[in-house]
Write a sequence for this structure.
């Protein structure tokens, strides 16, 4: 399989999962609110007949146009344009009290917000799982490998005196044991006054306000760690 086909397949799968999670949020919330749900679809347009089934009052389908999805809830007002994208008008009779508009405003708000809320919860869950499975990426060195003077932000000009091979042992008196820790302390420290203690060379002092986020972020690219030229992956 070519790389192009793999990329297309990956895109379809990822979008399919995101659409399913999003629409599942609307669907679950609508069922909870007592709203009649005509159809749950992955994809837009006409349903694929071979991939259509019904359970209870709801028809579950996969539609021909793989550019989204929808949950077709019973509503007193139905636009012609949206009806076409959602597989046509639903003909099943619906009790008035189960219409979307019949529900209290707070329930309708929950139904509308449920999709993006489910996406946020899903993303949090995926990244939490990956962090628990793979752990935190740490560069286990505090030795400077490269300094780019032109990228040193205003107020930290003293850091341009760093040389490859210099070992940072502390920041503002706090010992550091990894480059990840160095970057975190430089970028998130609430102190304006920052002191880098270099082994055998003393201190280098910078003055960067805590709210100068752009300048703080620039330090991460201006000072880079020493890394051995070890092959990590071959494709």
């Amino acid at each position: 399989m070519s790389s192009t086909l793999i990329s297309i397949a990956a895109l379809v799968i990822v979008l399919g999962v995101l659409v399913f999670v999003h629409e599942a949020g609307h669907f679950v919330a609508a069922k909870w609110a007592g709203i009649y749900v005509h159809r749950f679809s992955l994809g837009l347009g006409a349903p694929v007949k071979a991939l259509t089934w019904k359970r209870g009052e709801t028809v579950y389908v996969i539609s021909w146009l793989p550019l989204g999805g929808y949950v077709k809830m019973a509503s007193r007002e139905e636009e012609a344009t949206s009806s076409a994208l959602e597989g046509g008008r639903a003909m099943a009779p619906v009790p008035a009290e189960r219409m979307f508009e019949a529900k209290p405003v707070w329930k309708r708000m929950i139904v509308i917000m449920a999709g993006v809320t489910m996406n946020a919860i899903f993303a949090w869950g995926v990244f939490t799982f990956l962090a628990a499975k793979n752990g935190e990426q740490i560069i286990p060195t505090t030795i400077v490998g490269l300094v780019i003077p032109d990228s040193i932000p205003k107020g930290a000009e003293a850091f341009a005196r760093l040389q490859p091979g210099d070992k940072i042992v502390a920041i503002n008196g706090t010992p550091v044991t990894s480059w990840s820790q160095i970057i975190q302390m430089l970028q998130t420290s609430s102190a304006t006054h920052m002191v880098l203690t270099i082994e055998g060379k003393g201190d280098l002092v910078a003055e960067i306000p805590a709210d100068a986020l752009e300048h703080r972020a620039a330090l991460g690219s201006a000072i880079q760690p020493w890394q051995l030229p070890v092959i990590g992956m071959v494709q």
